[in-house]
Amino acid sequence: MDEYAGRVLAGRYRLPRPPADEFELVETRAFDTYSGQEVLVRQLLLPEVVHAEVVGDEAAPQAARHGVGDSAERALEAARAAAAVPDHPALVQVFDVLVEDGSLWVVSELVPARPIASLLADRLLTPYRAAEVAADLLGGLRALHAHGWAHRNITARTVLVCEDGRAMLDGLAFGAAQEALCGYDPVPREVLAASGGEQHGGWGGPDSALALERARQARITVVGPVTERWAPEQAGLVHQNWQLAPPVGPAADLWALGALLFRCVQGHPPFPEESAAELVGLVCAEPPALAEDCGPLRPVVESLLRQDPAERPEPEELRGWLRSLVRTAPEPDIGSRMVRVPAGPGDPHKLPVVRRKGELVRLRRRRPAADATAATPAHGRHARSRGQRPGPADATGETVEVRRRTGQLSQSTGRAPHRMGLLLVGLVLLLLAALVLYAVVFMPKGAGGVSSRSLPAQVSGGAAAGQAAPASHDAPTPTDRATQQTPSLGSDFTVRADPAGFSVAVHNGWTRSAGPNGETAFSSGGDMMQLVIVVGRDSAADYGTDPLAYQDREPELAPFRSSMWSSAAGLKRLDAGGAAAAEGEFTWRDPDSGNQVYGCNLAIARDGKYDIVLLTGPDDQRSLISDYFGKAVRTFRANG
Questions:
Q1: What stretches of 377-415 show up as alpha helix (H) in DSSP?
Q2: Cα separation of 468 and 579, whole Å?
Q3: What residues have CB less than 8 Å from 372, skipping those under 6 apart?
Q4: % of the chain with per-residue pLDDT over 70
Q5: b vs e for 602-620, b when ≥16 Cβ sit within 10 Å of the residue's Cβ?
Q6: Rounded to two decimals, what is the model's pTM?
Q7: Residue 60 has pLDDT above 80, yes or no
Q8: Element (H, E) at 494
Q9: 14 three-class SS
Q10: Mind listing the GO molecular function terms for this protein (predicted)?
Q11: Domains (range + CATH), the chain
Q12: DSSP letter, residue 353
């Protein structure tokens, strides 16, 4: 108690004595005399209000009696509403909110953690570690957004990193009090309606352009130059049509999360923070600094820092990106930062304490070690490790005593477990060797992603391996189209002989068109499916002889390579009747419509030239595209 010798708040929270160079303790530990636990206390100075005594006016004396004004009352109500948000593992709990001596005090749990600003002072975070922190924070934000709340106070000081590496979010009630003090209304409408706040205390925020501009100027003074708290919809100028401005909601928290990730990896904020007024102007007028050092996290940061809230990713989409990034994180270097684990069992009294909502409870006092030892008899094995003799009722002690009497105790008894362990290790190694031998002898031979299956021989032109394709004397003319129906393809497909020198199965009703680069396209129209065929346009001398590497430069896959959000799967080499071929599945986002596109591609190296079969369509029709692509590959034949 000597440490907490300062003032006492609300008759229960003892504050430490402030240092000589500090007038007030804005954020400090405190001791709760009711529960005997330490808590964290934050102070928010309230504006001084002078109330005039008016005859017949009961509101002014009542406000003067409490020592606060209307704005302070709103700040108190907003902080208490934020403290009533249901618990979440990623959110710090708030125990009490009170007003005393012209200040608003927020009492919350004292988490054994460090603010991320303190960690950044030592070293920056890697993109993968920053993605882990963002994934933890996103869980708490999604819980807040589900209850209609927006946090509005995500900074490097309110994000805490615990001893076990988890990230937690603090400052919800404190930020809500600041917003209300400036003149905004951070409490969601549904929360006010559920608690009856619209009838007593719900003020609704600014109701005119002048009031909104006053609140904005007050927020510049109260919040200051903190980039994370100035999303474009919060920093924008107030115009005549101020009611059409984007509302401050969950998208503002995602913008703040992007600014925090930028700071954690780059080491500086995306906008200069010399002046609050200058920062507010730059956020709305200039793009953020380039996230050059963010590496694989750069697309996520840039998408979160978009000015238009509608263009920022949804929380579910952001969660998928972060999880993918964390899964691809490289393994740490063993030995670079090793921590020696103490030998023997750990201290059972250092287990984490379960966090609970509400009043703090006093921890039960542990019994003395002597009483605990006397109450609980030690097991024989542990008694021997401490140099004690097991009791007569101990099973191990009885066994030892019997063996001593019969003279059967030998040194080989302690070696049995060791031999059993060696036997188990030998059996495991023998099983692994048998599996490797089976894979080498019986499984199909293939390396470097070469598939064991083969394409039909006619895909490579119908010639045998090492032979040139025979000349076709009855080659079809442009007006001579084959109309034969293949039973295995179904009645919806027809094998068409094209003037470009190939034949392929195309769905009935698809229209043909010739592209500017020598490609032939068959389009479905309504569902935007398209089959693209290219015969002998690109030479192996320009693109190389490896069809798998050719797909990285294939002109038809240029939209895939230029898309910021794209993925490839199923890349493998094939055998097309003696000719080398490669196949793959590609997904990308169409820059014009924003829709996901799925494509199946086949590249065949034939006589120093490349043939291409590409079928694209909507990502939600993958199974149908794969079926159509399989029919096209089975029936494709180049006449040249």
A1: 380-385, 395-406
A2: 11
A3: none
A4: 71
A5: bbbbbbebbbbbbbbbbbe
A6: 0.53
A7: no
A8: strand 493-498
A9: strand
A10: kinase activity
A11: 8-196+209-327 (1.10.510.10), 455-464+479-638 (3.40.1000.10)
A12: P
